[in-house]
């Protein structure tokens, strides 16, 4: 059963909600100075919950007023993290980063610090656009996500950050593959090889590695570099034998009378030796 004090607070909160909700476009909102930090904060929460696309902006106004009117209160602390959340929801990503960082600077030991760090990372991650765009934000997202994983390893946010890290990492590999395919289609085999090599060496844990190896087989065969083509095929067969990309590479090699096997002393040969020793992938 609610105490008299609790009941009074609830009545006060309901009074605020009713008073503010009743204000039409021509009616003046009651001065927020007349209400407590809790009442103003709850109004901000309400604006986020009702689902109207314009509500995040309204919520932000109430949360910022909590900070202005009651700067040293517990609700001011809570309002700041909610500001970051509302700004992110409104896709004001730079503002969200700024608020999240301000929270971390002001309350570094808070129980919501992990969430603030995660929101900061998310503000980069959610800006990652289609593959063809500049990848600077992807690198920033990776750095920020790694910070969440390393600084708050036991939190739920670390687990979510790890999943998003893998997706962002895959995104970078996808960019290299897209450019490599473009060069390959134009017959610029050396330029294409450089891109596919980046995937094999730097993004080997992504989903794009099998195709990158198959494309290397294709490029090297086109250049008449059979040792490199065979070695790429051998790596592909050792790690991804069930992949359709291996079937394609194998057929290309067989058509030339070749087998997928390690030959020569190229960069691919070094990787093959690492594969055999279990040091790669």
Describe it for me?
The chain has helices at about 5-20, 35-50, 55-70, 75-90, 95-105, 115-125, 135-150, 155-185, 190-200, 210-225, 225-240, 245-255, 265-275. The chain is mainly α. Among the domains are: about 30-115, Serine Threonine Protein Phosphatase 5, Tetratricopeptide repeat (Alpha Horseshoe), CATH 1.25.40; about 175-280, Serine Threonine Protein Phosphatase 5, Tetratricopeptide repeat, CATH 1.25.40.10. The radius of gyration is 28 Å and the shape is elongated. It starts with a helix and ends in a 5-residue tail after the last helix. This is Outer membrane protein assembly factor BamD. Keywords: Cell outer membrane, Lipoprotein, Membrane, Palmitate, Signal.
Which features does this protein show?
Serine Threonine Protein Phosphatase 5, Tetratricopeptide repeat; elongated; mainly alpha; 281 residues; 13 helices; cell outer membrane; single chain
Give a brief rundown of this model.
It contains 13 helices and no strands. The protein is mostly helical and 281 residues long. Among the domains are: 31-113, Serine Threonine Protein Phosphatase 5, Tetratricopeptide repeat (Alpha Horseshoe); 174-281, Tetratricopeptide repeat domain (Serine Threonine Protein Phosphatase 5, Tetratricopeptide repeat).
């Amino acid at each position: 059963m609610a105490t008299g004090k609790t009941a009074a607070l609830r009545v006060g909160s309901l009074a605020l909600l009713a008073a503010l909700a009743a204000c039409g476009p021509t009616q003046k909102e009651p001065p927020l100075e007349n209400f407590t930090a809790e009442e103003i904060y709850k109004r901000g929460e309400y604006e986020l919950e009702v689902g109207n696309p314009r509500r995040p902006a309204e919520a932000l106004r109430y949360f910022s007023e909590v900070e202005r009117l009651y700067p040293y209160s517990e609700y001011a602390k809570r309002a700041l993290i909610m500001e970051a959340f509302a700004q992110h929801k409104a896709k004001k990503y730079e503002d969200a980063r700024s608020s999240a960082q301000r929270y971390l600077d002001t309350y570094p030991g808070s129980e919501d610090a992990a969430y603030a760090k995660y929101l900061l990372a998310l503000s980069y991650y959610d800006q990652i656009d289609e593959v063809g765009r500049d990848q600077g934000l992807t690198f920033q997202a990776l750095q920020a996500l790694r910070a969440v994983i390393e600084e708050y390893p036991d939190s739920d946010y670390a687990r979510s950050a790890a999943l998003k890290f893998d997706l962002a990492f895959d995104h970078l590999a996808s960019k290299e593959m897209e450019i490599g395919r473009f060069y390959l289609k134009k017959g610029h085999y050396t330029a294409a090889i450089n891109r596919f090599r980046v995937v094999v060496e730097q993004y080997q844990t992504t989903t794009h590695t099998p195709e990158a190896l198959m494309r290397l087989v294709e490029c090297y065969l086109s250049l008449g570099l059979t040792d490199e083509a065979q070695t790429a095929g051998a790596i592909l067969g050792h790690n991804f034998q069930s992949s359709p990309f291996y079937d394609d590479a194998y057929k290309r090699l067989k058509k030339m009378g070749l087998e997928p096997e390690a030959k020569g002393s190229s960069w691919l040969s070094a990787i093959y030796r690492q594969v055999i020793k279990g040091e790669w992938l």
